[in-house]
């Protein structure tokens, strides 16, 4: 259903409460583990840091289920130009020498020390206590400093008027936007749409959970496998790690 257009530089993140659900990767291993949904009005807590571990050995180069799910969840248009917004995109890598090819999803890495926040002149780019990096459309003036500062090219500028919204993530012309880790779903005790779609396709390449909980599925997995943070040399401490690269 088409919703009224929102003014440029305006965004509201809806929150709600819902029952926690779980998707199994294999017996004893969950795609995520939540204690509870966050009640409306309760601030995010630094006791939690949400993150992802992406297993590139399970990511099919011909699959774009995560990209499609993101567009549908956030009412993003089908990109036809390089300048069209993309909150998540598939990247194909080839290892020098061996020629080994790897496919992986690329999105905002939700850094602990995000450069997009450091350069924002209005405070529109900010990091929640639970590690999710967002853009406050009330404050965004469209200067695009954050886009230049992001080493992952994870942010997009909304060039055209927006008339279709998901309801949970309204969008506006003249603002910058990027992956929110489906914050509206996380606050309801649900998993991001890309994680759900990947599991539905049977790939189960994306593990989502609380990095601050040593007993969470993602923390246990990170301790048991070799993983890589993209551009670790920048010391940004991304919340997204990749296995198999």
Search tags:
single chain; 245 residues; alpha+beta; Alpha-Beta Plaits; four-stranded mixed beta sheet; two-stranded antiparallel ribbon; 6 helices
Describe this structure in words.
The chain is an alpha+beta fold and 245 residues long. The chain has one domain (24-243): Alpha-Beta Plaits. The protein has helices at 65-74, 115-119, 145-149, 183-186, 193-200, 217-224, and strands spanning 24-26, 29-30, 50-55, 88-94, 101-107, 125-127, 133-135, 156-157, 176-177, 206-210, 227-228, 240-243. The strands form 5 sheets. The protein has a 4-stranded mixed β-sheet with strand order 10-3-12-11. Helix 1 crosses helix 5 (193-200). The protein starts with 23 loop residues before the first strand and ends with a strand. Mean pLDDT is 86; it is low at 1-30.
Element layout with pairings:
Elements: E1 24-26, E2 29-30, E3 50-55, H1 65-74, E4 88-94, E5 101-107, H2 115-119, E6 125-127, E7 133-135, H3 145-149, E8 156-157, E9 176-177, H4 183-186, H5 193-200, E10 206-210, H6 217-224, E11 227-228, E12 240-243
Parallel strand pairs: 3-12
Antiparallel strand pairs: 1-2, 3-10, 4-5, 6-7, 8-9, 11-12
Helix pairs in contact: 1-5
Strand content: 15-25%
Outline the low-pLDDT stretches. 1-30
The CATH architecture term is 2-Layer Sandwich
Query: Helix share of residues?
Result: 10-25%
CATH topology: Alpha-Beta Plaits
Order of helices and strands: EEEHEEHEEHEEHHEHEE
Write down the Rg.
17 Å
What is the end-to-end distance? 41 Å
Largest β sheet strand count, sense and barrel closure? 4 strands, mixed
Assign an overall shape.
Answer: globular
CATH class: Alpha Beta
Tell how many strands the DSSP assignment holds.
12
Quaternary state of the chains: single chain
Mean pLDDT: 86
Number of domains: 1
Strand order of the largest sheet: 10-3-12-11
Structural class: alpha+beta
Count of helical regions = 6
